[in-house]
Design goal:
It contains six helices and 13 strands. It is α/β, with parallel strands linked by helices. Strands 5-2-1-6-7-8 form a six-stranded parallel beta sheet, with helices on both faces. Strands 4-3-11-10 form a four-stranded mixed beta sheet, with helices on one face. Strands 9-12-13 form a three-stranded mixed beta sheet. It binds NADP nicotinamide-adenine-dinucleotide phosphate (NAP).
Length: about 220
């Protein structure tokens, strides 16, 4: 059997995005091992029409890890990479695919201090999810990832096949990652001003949004 036919899967950072991917895997009978900063017995992800409970525990001590995994999803925030890096040494072997579930275009370089860049598989995360006060997650859209079209990506495609989280691959990953980043930048103006999308219909704001989204 080839390694990526039935990969062993770990997930570091079981927050809004990480718990959603974990729930998608669990629903398909491929429950990942969970590693995080805060201990939980399980994870709950709710969405329109249902809820998935992912059995834990969320393990919090890298020193207790005794095995490496074929595929490690990393879904900590960018500011948490350094603190989370001890998990990478504990969970990754020479052939582990490290799929980074983060916004941005610099995933490979941001992890370069901790793992060889060629082992890092960046992704574009398309779905909105948020954590609730009780640490459960509210999934607010259809889970979808885009990955660069590489051999390592096939491990993720295989792991998530037939799950509620769809995966597509592209030969022009960097353009798509930039597009998503610029969409976030435009949306950030709403957060900063406390306004809704209608703000972009004002004639002095529309051009800013269009340039940011590459539509000029
Ligand atoms: N949320 C969205 O809608 C969305 C959409 C697209 C892209 N993204 C991107 O996805 C990434 C993750 O965002 P998120 O919203 O899922 O963040 P989040 O809900 O805050 O999740 C981060 C998770 O990482 C854990 N963590 C923090 N430090 C850690 C450490 N040292 N070791 C292990 N785990 C650690 C956190 O644990 P605690 O429980 O202790 O905090 C939490 O479970 C970000 O880059 C974000 O930009 C998010």
């Amino acid at each position: 059997m080839k390694m990526h036919d039935n990969p062993t899967i770990a997930l570091v950072g079981p927050g809004a995005i990480g718990a959603t991917v974990a729930a998608s895997l669990h629903e398909a009978g491929r429950t990942p091992a969970l590693f995080g900063r805060t201990a939980h017995d399980h994870l709950d992800v709710r969405f329109d029409g249902g809820q998935i409970r992912v059995p834990g525990p969320v393990q919090t001590n890298p020193a207790c890890i005794e095995t490496t995994f074929d595929l490690v999803f990393v879904a900590v925030k960018t500011t948490q990479i350094e603190a989370a890096s001890t998990w990478l040494s504990a969970l990754c072997g020479e052939k582990t695919v490290i799929c980074v579930l983060q916004n941005g275009v610099e995933q490979k370089s941001q992890f370069a201090t901790y793992v060889p860049q060629h082992r890092v598989l960046p992704s574009v995360v398309w779905f909105p999810a948020q954590r609730e006060a009780d640490a459960s997650v509210w999934l607010r859209g259809k889970p979808r990832l885009t990955l660069p079209d590489t051999r390592a990506a096939q491990t993720v495609v295989t792991a998530l096949r037939g799950t509620r989280c769809s995966v597509d691959v592209t030969e022009d990953f960097i353009s798509i990652a930039w597009r998503k980043l610029l969409q976030n930048a435009v949306a950030g103006l709403m957060v900063l001003t406390g306004r809704r999308a209608g703000m972009y219909s004002r004639s002095d704001r529309t051009p800013v949004a269009r340039v940011s989204k590459g539509m000029h």
